[in-house]
Amino acid sequence: MNLRIIAGKFGSRSIKAPRGHVTHPMSERIRGALFNSVGTALQDADVLDAFAGSGALGLEAISRGAKFVTFVERDKEATKVLDSNIELLECQEFTKVIRSGVASWADNTDQRFDVILADPPYDDMQLSTVARLFGLLKPKGIMILSYPGRGEAPTGTNGVVVVDNRSYGTAALAFYRPVDA
After folding, report:
1. E runs forming strands in 26-170
2. Contact 148, 127 (CB under 8 A)
């Protein structure tokens, strides 16, 4: 399966998605809405693509001006596809791929991010892990969570609140910011 980078310096370039049901690539329509909502927050941003899969979200972020993207993905096949997508777009110097579960990585990092993109598997939303990611936001950062449209987004915790929530049929996006942002 191929995906397309929507806009920016890699706009219209195709990347691959892992085969099977290990990942669920976000539709182009929802990715477009997400990135149009984030706007200038991506400029020179340090970005986390949690539950990275193909890396489409993080690669779109680089395409639109992010300074650096850290990808976290535990599936071996997905990380192979992600590595090949990074190589295809020749953006190795702006990326780091970590093959790990998001929860264990989040518990052992001191990195902080301007933008966190979280697209966990819909059949295992790992809400406790998603809540851990709130603690990785920089003071004026933003986190966007993709979740099933029929589900409920977690309310903010750890000093983070929901600032927007948008539904797109079978998928939805929740936007979080630190309370003092």
Report:
1. 46-50, 68-73, 95-99, 113-118, 137-148, 160-167
2. no
Q: Which helix (H) or strand (E) holds 2?
A: strand 2-4
Instruction: Quote the number of domains for the chain.
Output: 1
- Residue 30 to residue 14: CA distance in whole angstroms: 17
Q: What is the CATH number of the domain that holds 7?
A: 3.40.50.150
> Which residues form the domain of 171?
2-178
- Per residue in 44-81, pLDDT (tens digit) is 999 999 999 999 999 999 999 999 999 999 999 999 99
Question: What's the predicted TM-score (pTM) here?
Answer: 0.94
As a three-state string, the secondary structure of 132-172 is: HHHCCEEEEEEEEEEEECCCCCCCCCCCEEEEEEEECCCEE
